[in-house]
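Lab meeting minutes (informal)
Scribe: AK
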Amino acid sequence: MDNTTLLIVVGVIVGLIIGFVIAKSLEKGKASKVIGNAKKEAETILKAAKVDADGIKKDKILQAKEKFIELKAEHEKVIVSRDKKMAEAEKRTRDKESQISNELSKNKKLNATLEEKKKDYDYRIDYLEKKQAEVDKLHKSQVNQLEVISSLSAEEAKEQLIEAVKAEAKSDAMAFIQERMEEAKLTAQQEAKKVIINSIQRIGTEEAIENCVSVFNLESDDVKGRIIGREGRNIRAIESATGVEIIVDDTPEAIILSCFDSVRREIARLSLHKLVTDGRIHPARIEEVVRKTKKQIEEEIIEVGKRTVIDLGIHGLHPELIKAVGRMKYRSSYGQNLLQHSREVAKLSGVMAAELGLNPKLAKRAGLLHDIGKVPETETELPHAILGMQWAEKHGEKPDVCNAIGAHHDEIEMTNLISPIVQVCDAISGARPGARRQVLDSYIQRLKDLEDVAFGFTGVKKAYAIQAGRELRVIVESEKVNDDQASELSFNISQKIQTDMTYPGQVKVTVIRETRAVNIAK
């Protein structure tokens, strides 16, 4: 049993060994076959890769050749262009050299000519110097002979001759100047009078004088109590809302509205009219009516400004300036309504500018805006002319218009012909009889100041301000002031008045000098 098992085991082991050997043999044969196939495929792949590599190589070589040919062509073009430029530069250089050679040859010829002329001039100068020496010697000899004959030296004779010529020339010059001045004055006065008269004849305005007090008429005195209200609350509400003082006195069927600002007075008057007509008078209603009236007045101011500029033919005015023109209706200057005054000055300026051949539209514009500085209610120390000029500059007005506004009271220097026209027309408008109202004390003081200015000069004996301050007559002492000094004194007094005083229109200064010889026969 044991032997049988052993044989089986041995047989199995031998079988396994034989099977293993057979399996190894088979595996080795299969592996040899696979390796052979792999070698064949590798050779096939290598052959294909070699063929592809040869194709790629040929393509790359071909591309490299084409690129080389292209770069070579471009290089040849650059070389050709550079050669062309060099050839052109060489040609220009040759032309410049040729031109320089020509210039050098010309310069050589000119130098030779100049040398010849210089020699000629030197010869002439020497000749002239010799002649001059001979002339000087001869002149000296003649002067010596004249001095012996006249018993005067040359310097003395020269001084006498100069003095005689100066005296004669001065006399002739003074006579000529006097004649021309008289002729110019006569012509200028005639032309100026003609222009001014023509301008004034074309203008007709109403003479309106505004006061600081307005009278509001009532249907009956019963309304006064309703306006005052219980314990005066209504009248206090009106005064608070409008800024106007309301005076209720014994005047029958009337109350007085007092305020320096005519716009406030007009608002108060219209508000009272609405309240009295409506019948409902109490603080709440008063505030509502005053507010609506203020808005109405503002609209009316703008409308008045627009209508004014349209009437005068002025275009392109800034809205703020139009509003300021409308507010002129409620302003006054020395009792003269500012809007009427400005319209009058604008028309006068336009007519005068047209007469003188200037731009009438520009003159009208400057005339209308010349007193625009009186409209603002803000407190300022600037003169109204300067303030108006700043306003006009701020709102884009032309320099000529701004200068006319600022210079119409000589606050700044005039730089164009429109400025004196506006100044003269402003004086014409303000100087009309009844146009303005002045306080008696200030009027008398102005006349006294005029006379004091004259007494400040040497030789003045008497001075009289006449024709309402339009003329100053000065009587001088004939022993201290001659005729020539009298003319100079008149000019100096007029300049002093113009510099130191403020006055409407113009002041004529007349200096009177006379010599009296008095004897008594006994």
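Next up, CB showed the second protein from the same session:
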Amino acid sequence: MDEGAVEICKLRLWLSMVADLEDEPHEVEPLPNIDFNIRQGNSLVGFTNLVEITDDGDASLTNWGGGVGTGVQELYEDVINAIKRHQKATSTAEAQNARQLAESLVDSHSQELNEKVLDQFHAAGLDEVDKGKLQEFSPFHWVLEFAPVYEDGGFDVVIGNPPWDRIKPLRDDYFSKYDETFRTRLPDDKDRVQEELLEDDDIAEGWQEYQDEMELRAEYFKNTPAYDLQRPVIDGRVNPSTNDLSSLFFERVFQLAGDSSRVAQILPGAVFNGASGKDLRIHLLNNTTLDVLTIFENHEIFEQVHGQYKFGVVVFKNSGSTNQVAGKYMEGDLSIFDDFDNQAIHIPRDVLELYSPEAGIFPFIESEQKLSVLESIIENPPIAPKDAPTGYMEPYQGLRRTSDADRFVDKSEADYPVYGGKNIYQYSYTPEFITDVQKPEFWSVEEDDDPERSAKQRMREKTVRDLKSAIYEAFDGTGSQKGFVNDLLEQHRGEPLTENDVLLDSTEYRIGIRRITNSTNERTLIASVLPKGIVCHNTLLTIPSYLIQPYEEGLSESPLHNFYTRMFSDEELFAKLGLLNSIPLDYLLRTKVDTGIVMYKFKESQMPDLSEDDNWFHYISERAALLSCYGDGFAEMRDRLGGIDPATTEEARREIQAEIDAAAFHAYGLEHMEVQFVLKDFHRVSNPRIMTEDYFDTVLEKYNILKKEGPKS
């Protein structure tokens, strides 16, 4: 976009060619005219091919807004003819005249195409952009600027290292124009210099105009139909790109490259594992022949970039589809390119698709063993399959510690605790066995005593909408949900829906999951079954106790509690808990988790769907219950399970948990070598609560015993 930079590029190329001429004059071709090869403009705004939208809307979105005035094809041919005159010129004067004509045509025809680009801006809701404002965007029409390339069938090769920034105001870019050392200053010093510079009214006005312009650019790329791979749908919601320049350039590459083009790009890690890159990754698999996918963790490969920053290199042909790709995950090491064929791992398409079926995230695979483990794990079904009932295995947030703070009371006047993530650990809901499990910080009162301060009453207010939605959907509602449901209930029982119709999940034992976590914690997924009567705040996600399944006969009842059916039997509850807390699932999730449990990543992750006909079901369920059902809070559950005797010694609890982990490996279908790899590769912490080397050895020992003897109770 910087005209000065383009001129410097031309000069350097000339100097390089002249240097070659001096060194080996007999081997140098006649010096070419590079004016038509090095061009200036905005690569992301403008026409990329010759197809326009017709009245029937039949064309590529890359040229959305076409069909107005002279066609792109006609303008392109006009430029081609002028450039051919330049190429065939027999004298300097003739060449100069032809060049001037070609440049003049490119300029005048670009103005015509700008009219079509202006329609794109208006379609994106930016009506304030006029011809003058559009010029500030420097539209670049590839079909005109590189007309000879298009005449020859397009670019043979497209190589790029696009900007790794977002479209946003960067003070380094702006204030460096007035202070050459601004970029190298420390943050506090930048603040001081910026404040001093802004005392100049002209600089301050320019800074505001610059910020406004960047906001305008961001809005264009956010809304324009010229880029349709930037707004993927994940878990039923649009997950728009944050105007990441690398993502926009990557989509532009798909538009620019022809079917036979070879493409190589260096891209930041978000393109490969960020939610907003989903559609780009799907396009890459479905519409290109991807040959190379190598992802790096920086570690000083680029000195100015953080050591843990991830980036990748992709090489592909811009047609066909991908069945497998060669690549590897490397940390601070580029040696794979010295011997790529021997070092690369061949990753099947199935792994790239099934690893993250909802968001299409690509896994980071550094060894054949890890590939084998992931293949075995992802053969299992998702934790929450798409065809499952609404709410199935879908953790949700309860009270918020800020907006619901009025529902917390002093412990001295409270009836029950309000739990958060720090109040549980695996199979523990008290500090009895894990000393750093904290005691509850928040408390509340029963609804009957003081509904205005009751956490349960607030949860009733929050969840009545779920009941309303379930009734609306079950009876094919139309129009307003509230109106339809209330009219329906008035007809059957003579009263509308009320909060009393809600059956709270806290009336039954249920699974809680820590929301805040990390891939480098001792365990990433931490779950426990909670006693009845406990309400949770937003750092402890809970899986619903009930499925809401309305039926016509039940519409006459008050309250509508019969619409609520247990999501799991007691045995199923503890079988699920054992698998949620297992090493195989933890190993998978820690490849996806950053600083917390993201809902779609949890739901799409794979876990065996064990039934009561499966012996691993009973083996895991019984042991998870022995670890969980201690204390007064589980007296009822112990009776429901036949009077079980919970494990209350450290030695017994560790052995039982190791048995669950070992059984989970079998349930997942992992072989001995894969189990060994996972246990060796599993992240270690310096002061483990449970996951010591002895514990890992015990798990492997238990795995081998179970392989010989099977899952005996």
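CB comment: Residues 380 and 606 are 5 Å apart (CA to CA).
No objections, moving on.
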